[in-house]
Each structure stands twice: as structure tokens, then as C-alpha cells.
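#struct-queue
[09:14] JT: dropping the first one here, sequence first, then the C-alpha cells:
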Amino acid sequence: MKNEFHLKSRSTEITASSGLRKNRTDMTGTSKEVGPLTASSRGRSTPLIKPSELESLRVKTWFATALADAGLPDGSSNSFRAWFVGSDQDLPIPAALLQTMIHEHGDRLADLYKDCLNDIRRQNYETGQQSPNDLTLQSMNALFPGTQGVYEHGPNDEPLWMVLSGDAKTCEDYLHALMPPPKGQFGLSFEMKIQGLFDGLLAPQWRVNLDAVPIGQQGFGHPVWLSYIHTRFDAAQPQYDRPSENSSQLLEIATIDDLIIGTIAAWWLAVQRQEGPILQLEWLLMGLCQGVIGQVLSPDIQMYVVALVREQTIAIDKVLSKANHPTPNFEQRWTARVDIAPQLNKAE
């Protein structure tokens, strides 16, 4: 069944290569304007987000975006190996590389911007140990437009941080905007919205109804990952080489950033309400955690989602056990997966 409720994405298409540089617009589809910079901007108008691990992830993502926009390694070991391939020198600190670039190419910046960014290598932003103030955010945004929105909201200016924090109103509003009701209807049921997420993230070959979703992973190769990787591989082929007979293995929607955030929002709402297809949403979300979130957003965000689901599912498993539901616990459902087990161990 084709998803009729999906609001066209404002985010990144699946292409042969995916990076942190993306179009950044708000939920209305318009660009955000950054206010004028003054010395009073040394305060912080954007509050820190809880828990602290999420704030740290937010900072690291913001700084990695600035590094990527500068054409530098984003701080991950893979990016360093690619950047310094064949080099015998010690790998420098990412912030030191950015500091050098700012000194060499920052002539066009106002003096206040330069002063703010003059010692950025000592701020530990790449490890998420310190959060930027307004002055730093606006100074960095002057050099790399769009990065302020990544910190304040999330990649593409989507409200990822508030959704990850489990803010109920943000989750509800985002899901409603993503799955608006058809003309003449007041709204869609929660289950219909979730089915729309399934239809958007699963290619026709692997599409299932909610009541047929398996508990945990059956075999290797999660259908969510298979749908994504086949679509990405197809996008990398020359148009004349694309095999039309494999169309059933391809996603019908080329942009899935918002579907990922919508899935996290729906999962949080089901967890908070302790009702609805919680285990089905877990299955969809864990499928996204087998590489899709890491490719579309970042490996750090994917790791956080795995840890978040694991933490919240402990309480869900207790409720299910008291209700006499013979369901394997989270560890039994997922640690048999060779690519998920290492992530669970690192999340401890």
C-alpha cells in the first residue's frame, strides 16, 4: 500500500555519497535569519538540553558540521584515515585544524567574530564537554552558514534534539506535520501514522502490516536496512544501468531524514503512553539503527538512539512480563545481531 499521508521532506536525498552538509530550513520550509551579533551575545539564549549525554551529542554534531563544511575531517576515526591516507605524521586535533583555517581565511570576519573564535581549539567542542554560547554560535555561523540551526534544532534545522529528549508536544506536532490528514478529515489515528512510517521506510518487497511485524530480528539483514541500501546503490548507478526489475526493493520516497525523526517521535509517544504498537516501533527503530541513521545523520546519533531504546525498553519489558506476555527481553531480541551487539556494549 502506498503511503498517502507523507509530507514531502525538506531534507537530504539518498545519493551515492552522504555527508553532514545539508539544506537547513525550518519546518515551514523557509530559511532562518540569524540576529545581529553584539558583545552581550556572550550569554546563552538556547537552554541546555537534558540529559547531559544528549547535550554532548548536540555539541559534537554542531562542531562536526562546522568541520565538514570547512572541508576538514569531522573528528571520526574514519574521516581522519581518509584525510591522512599514506601520511606518517601524527593525527592533529580537529579543532586545531579549524583554528588554523580561521586564522588563515578569517579576514572577512568582524573583529568580534575573530576574537570569539581565536581560541576555539581549547574549548573541547569535538568531545562535547562544553556548550557554545550565543557569541560562539553566531561567530561560527558567520563562517559556516547554517551551523547555528544544527545546534539549536538539529541537522537540517529539524527538531531532532527535542524529539530525542522525548518532549511530548514536539513529538506530537512533528508527527502531525509529517502525516497530515487527508482533505476532509480531522486527523489520522496513531496506528495509521505508524503504518505510514513503515510504508515510507520499507520497500514494497519487505513491506508489512503492523500486526505482522516480527518481534526482534529474524535472520540477518533487517528489511529497513535492505530497503535503504538497495535504494542508495540504485541511486549510485548511471541512469541507463539501473535494473528496472528491482524496483520492488527500492524506497518510494527518496528523502527519509524526516521519517527517521518521525519514527523516534512515534516511539517516544508510545513509550510515554505505554500503549500502541511499542514493539513494532522498536523493530522499525532498531532497523534504522543497523546503519541507516549512521549513514543519513551520523554514527554518534545512531549510537545514542540504540542506548536510548535499550534504556527505555527495560521498563517496557517489565510491564510486558507482568501482563503475562511471553516476549523475549530486549537483549534476547537484539544482541544476537552481530552488528547491534557491539553498539549495545559501547552504550553501557
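[09:21] JT: and here's the second one, same format:
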Amino acid sequence: MKTSLKFHYSSEGAADPYIEAGYAFQSSLERRVADLSVTERSEFLYQDRLAAALRLSRTNPMYAKLYSGKNPNEWDSLPIIDKIIVSKMFEDLVVSQGINRPIVEGYLAERFDLSNCLHDRYLAFESSGSSGHRSISVYNLFDFGRSLAAFYGMCMQPYVRNPARVAYVGLLDRYNGGNQWMYHLRGHANVALFDLFDDLEHLLHEISRFCPSVILTRPHLLRELGLSGKAQGRLTFKGAHLISVGEGLTPPDAQSISSCFETLPHNSFSTTETGPIGFQLDPDVESLTCYPALNYVEIVDESGVPITRFHEYGRIVVSNTYNTVMPLLRYDLGDQACWLPTDDGRPTMSFLMGRNSTVLKFKVDGSVFEVCERELAGFAVPGLANYQLHQTRPDALNIGYSVSFGGDPTHVGLVLEAEIRKLLKDNGALSISTEHKREIGPDKKTGKMRRIIPLS
């Protein structure tokens, strides 16, 4: 049986002083920003990103090339970058830090040890590659501490007593953002890390022994833990503060999880490259509030023009000016969302509506049409627990699905097929099959649930 990584408690080692310095700096900054009006806060962030663009255009080789002939003070005219651009220009981006790709890749290839730092002053990790492009990210310890303070202050501190007992279930065989953030949180909470691919019963037993006040993991695993624990009468951590990370949280997920834990999960949105981006403050409201003094978030249209109107979907673009090693200005995440109105005026997004880069391409009767992930996200089927769309031929689609407790698999399958055909505007020409499954498992490489699997 595969066993979990050894527990990491705050008492097992002192927190890194550079991380703690960054943590203290961010906490102080957020207290100052909290005293500003909405207008003053917006101006503060605006001036911060303009100053970063001007500085980097003069000192960073990547931005000197990208901004050549452009005025850094004209923010909306600056180019939007993505994973492919950053990968191609990685050496230019980090050269001033005395590191390069071979050095970082060498660190990532070493024996996995979360206490290990690159050159004693950097943390490096890689994304899961779920978007189709793997990326690597580097933070110095101070900047990493800033992101840690923002995350803990927004996602945990208001909801639980200190010190929190935090159980994180994620990928524990490689360096990635999730396990690094949770491991280094041990200076502020009692933290235990568990393996996402551990045997479910063993995982339930170990988490129950730890008795957490906070649990962070993928929503599909929260649901499985809840259902298994409830069935066995072993759900000793009922009522814990639940944070969904790593995948999108759907309404069926939230309701299924709530029925077991007697509390709704909160959705959290972050990326390896940018750190924390948004958090669902109220689990009854499907919205993500942006962090007040960490990243700058934009939603832009297909031409790259910022969208300021509510309920108009566009691409999420983030600027992580706090990361001095790998500053990413106007970085396209590939995800889509829209702005939502709020009473307090804080920048707040909808839940993500899928990637515009994940596309199904169909060819039927000589006609070719494409459908992106977002277009397939707008349906709700009573009794549906989970689903996965797998294109098997140019004219064929298989729908794998699972049902919630008490759901009728046959009825759910028929309604689900009808909804998908409606979204595809299909009149019966496509070959669509449905397959009821006990559960839809995560991808073995990324640990994430793949809703859409294009034709390979």
C-alpha cells in the first residue's frame, strides 16, 4: 500500500527567516491597503504595475525586447504574454538572478525534498501541464513569503482558530506550488501533507487521526472522502473548513460535499506561475474575490482590451509584480471568467468557465466545426455527480458520467446527452454514446479531473 508523506508539523522545524520576513511585509501592506477606499486601492495597484513595467523595460532583457518602441506608461497597449512566450524567453527573464533553465531543471530533477532550496534562496516548481504546456516558476524566499501571507490571511485566518490544523492532499512526488505553499505554512499552522494517489481508505484513516480544522484538496477527492467516511461512520473531521483547490468546483460537487461534511466548500483559484488569485469568501455565492495587494487581475476580450462591464466573459490576465525573480506582466492564464458586481466594490470574478485553448474539433458530413471548453460548461443535470467528454473520432463523442446518491443512471444519461447535443447544436448527426461509471477518476499525471479530452 502506498503511504503518505511523513507529517510536517510546525514544531518539527523553524520557519525560514526570509519567508517570515516576506510574510510580515505582506501582512503589514494588507493592513495599510485595508484602510484605503476602493478608489484609492485601485489607484495604488495601478501605480504599482506601471512602476513595474517602467522598471522592467529598463532592467529586464525579456521586457526590454517585448516593450521596445512602446510606452510602459500606456498599460493597455503593452503586449499580453503566455506560457509559450515565457518558455521561449525564460533565459532573458531570469538572467539577472544568476540562474538559467539547466540550473532550475537540475533542481527539479533532484530527489524530492520540500526542505531543499535552490541556491539556498530560491524555490522552484513546475505546473502539472494540465493546459497542455508545462511551465516552471521560480520565487525568492521573501516574495514567496508574501504570497503565503496573502493566502493564509484570506483563505484560513478568518474561518478557524489559531493555530489551524491543516490537512493538504496533493501531488507529493514533485515540486509544485501546492505542496510548497502548504509545507512552508508550517510556521503559522500545524500542517500535514498527504498523497493524492494514496489508497482512499488509508487516506481517510490518516486524515481522521490528524483531525484537521482545515482541509485543502481537489473537489472530487473531498467528495470521495466525505461519501466513504459518512458510509462508514468515520467522518471525524465533519465541520472542517473545506477549501477546493486544483480543479474547478461545480455546484454538484459542492452539494455532494456539503451533504457529507455539513459545511459548504470554498473555491480557491491560484496558479503555479502567479500564486493566489481569487477566493470564494462566502460559500453560498459563486464568486472569487481577488487578493487586495498581491496580483493585479484583468479580464480582456479577444483583442486584448480590458473588459470593465459586468457579466461579460473574457480571458483572465494576471500581473504578479510581487515576484521579483519571475515577474509576469499581463500574463494570459488561458482561463475565462467575468466581473461580478459587489456591495463593497472589491474586484470579484465569476467561477472559471473553462479554457479557450481546450477545443473539440468535429467533422460531420464534410462540415468542420470547433467547440471550446467554455461553451460546454453551461448546463446542469439533476442527479449528475461528475462527467467527462472524450472525443473518440472526428464525428464521435463519449460521455462518461457518475450520479449522486439516489440518482437514476439511465435518466441522468439521457438528459445529459440531450443537454450536450443542445450545446453542440447537433441534430443527431454526431455519434454520441453515454457510459455510466461509479466514479470519474483524475488524470494520473496531473492529479486533476479532465472534463474535456480532445481527439489525440
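[09:30] RK: nice, looked through the second one.
[09:31] RK: The longest strand covers residues 384-393.
[09:31] JT: good to know. Confidence is low (pLDDT under 50) at residues 1-11.
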